[in-house]
Amino acid sequence: xxxxxxxxxxxxxxWLILGVECFIGGFHHVxxxxxxxxxxxPCHYDEKNPPQKKYWFSGIDQSKIYTNTSEENPSVIDHPxxxxxxxxxxxxxxxxxxxxxxxxxxxxxxxxxxxLHLRVQPAPDVSVVSSSVSGHExxxxxxxxxxxxxxxxxxxxxxxxxxxxxxxxxxxxTSQSSSVQISDDDGRSSFTVLMTGLRLSDSxxxxxxxxxxxxxxxxxxxxDKRRNKELLTVWLPVSAALLQLLILVCVFFTWRWKQRSxxxxxxxxxxxxxxxxxxxxxxxxDPVIYNTINDERSNDPIKDKTYSTIGDAPVNAAKxxxxxxxxxxxxxx
Length: 333
What we know:
Layout: H1 2-25, E1 29-34, E2 39-44, E3 53-58, E4 64-66, E5 75-79, E6 84-89, E7 98-106, E8 109-121, E9 126-128, E10 132-136, E11 141-147, E12 156-160, E13 166-168, E14 180-185, E15 190-195, E16 204-210, E17 213-222, H2 225-274, E18 288-295, E19 305-312, E20 326-330
Parallel strand pairs: 1-8, 1-17, 10-17, 18-20
Antiparallel strand pairs: 2-6, 3-4, 3-7, 5-6, 7-8, 9-11, 11-15, 12-13, 12-16, 14-15, 16-17, 18-19
């Protein structure tokens, strides 16, 4: 009795500490699994501020199983590239029925990101044919979700785990996307989800729900290589044509440049040929005439004086031979 009381007090203390975060972090869901079955549960966390520790908490025995430990059942694996860790529980039995939580821890403060009640029973309330589906980029994928008769009149939804955005059967609102169609299969206790025009960003975790009961489904969108091949088939000829056009343009401009260079050179030659060199005639200087005058005057004490004068010969005067000087002798007066 004392041991039971101790466990009860520990449980109450834990929920008092994390109760507010539990209310903020998510709402209560019921996951029903067939006896002997298995399930994988995604636990998302903030990608901008990844927590220091992540673990799976069991309300049954207050145990914590941290990510990437050697524990195999359940196994808790971190996927930092997707900002989530997954919890896989196998060979479930009645003893596993209870409350569980996805918890993250930063600076010693624990926050519940997601909580649920797991119930193991002979037949699940909500189930799918396969918990993992795939489709090609740009293609379609269809998921059929089954529910028990007790949920016949409950809302049926297809939701994304990450942000819990949901699409509801029989309801039209502004959040509905044309790429997701959800319809109730009358009289067959199931509804069908059809996702068209798949994008790579559609990959991730979803769940079918009827009332509070749910079942997780993982969707993988495969990059369509055929589509890439078709794009290559279209773009290769276009690229080749553009390349040829570019080469022709380059050849044309190269030819024009060469032609222009030849024309410029020819014009320069013609301009040089048209120039005339006018002969320059230098008129020779007028010849210099030397005149020598002898003055022999009887009354002059100094006889035989000789006077020389230099004068310019008239232009029209007879020119002496080259290098010749003209001497004019004048006798005594």
